[in-house]
Specification:
Layout: H1 9-20, H2 23-39, H3 46-60, H4 67-77, H5 80-85, H6 89-95, E1 96-99, E2 102-105, H7 107-115, H8 127-140, H9 153-166, H10 174-188
Antiparallel strand pairs: 1-2
C-alpha cells in the first residue's frame, strides 16, 4: 500500500471538492436530507421510520434484512429528545435489535440513522473510516485506542474529535471529517469481494 498523505487542510479540501463532484452521492445525500429534515423529521410514526430505514438501507447497502423489526425497535426507543440532545449512547441503543430471537448489532446503520438527523453531531462509522483511523493511530500515534473502541459510539466520536484536533483540522465539522475519511479510505483500503 502506498503511504497515505498526512491529514492537513489541503488534503481535506481536496476530498471535500471531490465529494462535491460525485453527482450520485451528492443527490443521494440531498434526497436523504429532504427525507430526514423536511418530510419525516420525527420518529414517532412507524410509517415515517420505515421509509427512512428503507432508504438508508438501500443507499448505503447496510444489509438489514428485516427493516420492519429495526423500525419498530426505533419507534419503541422514543428517540427524538435524545437525538436533539446529542446523546451518544443512543447509537448503540438503536444498533442492538432482537430479530427472530437473535441479537443483532446494526452499528454502522445506527450511526447513519442518527447522522442523517443531526449530521454535525453524529459522525458515521463505517469500514473505510475505521481503516483510516487505525492507520493513523499506528503511523502517527494521534491517540491510543483499541479497534473495539470504534464500536462504542461515545468513544468513536471522541476518537474522531482527537483526530481532528491532532491534525489541526478544527475548522471542519464532523460531517466534513467523515466525508474526508470515507473517501480517503475508499482510495487506500479497497474492499476485496
Amino acid at each position: 500500500m502506498n503511504s497515505i498523505p498526512k491529514p492537513c487542510q489541503k488534503e481535506v479540501e481536496k476530498y471535500l471538492n471531490k465529494w462535491d463532484s460525485l453527482e450520485n452521492y451528492v443527490l443521494q445525500e440531498s434526497s436523504l436530507d429532504k427525507l430526514f429534515f423536511k418530510t419525516y423529521p420525527k420518529n414517532d410514526d412507524i410509517n415515517d421510520i420505515l421509509i427512512k430505514c428503507s432508504s438508508l438501507n438501500d443507499f448505503y447497502s447496510t444489509n438489514i434484512f428485516s427493516i420492519f423489526s429495526v423500525a419498530k425497535h426505533i419507534l419503541k426507543l422514543n428517540i427524538d429528545k435524545r437525538l436533539k440532545e446529542g446523546d451518544a449512547t443512543l447509537v448503540n441503543d438503536i444498533a442492538k435489535v432482537k430479530i427472530n430471537g437473535k441479537d443483532k448489532n446494526f452499528y454502522s446503520f445506527a450511526t447513519k440513522y442518527c447522522s442523517h438527523h443531526f449530521p454535525t453531531i453524529y459522525p458515521i462509522y463505517d469500514y473505510y473510516v475505521e481503516k483510516v483511523l487505525l492507520y493513523f493511530r499506528d503511523k502517527d500515534h494521534f491517540l491510543y485506542f483499541k479497534k473495539s473502541d470504534l464500536k462504542k459510539y461515545d468513544l468513536f466520536k471522541n476518537i474522531l474529535i482527537s483526530f481532528r484536533n491532532y491534525y489541526g483540522l478544527n475548522e471542519y465539522n464532523l460531517k466534513d471529517i467523515d466525508r474526508y475519511l470515507w473517501q480517503l479510505g475508499k482510495d487506500y483500503f479497497k474492499k476485496k469481494y
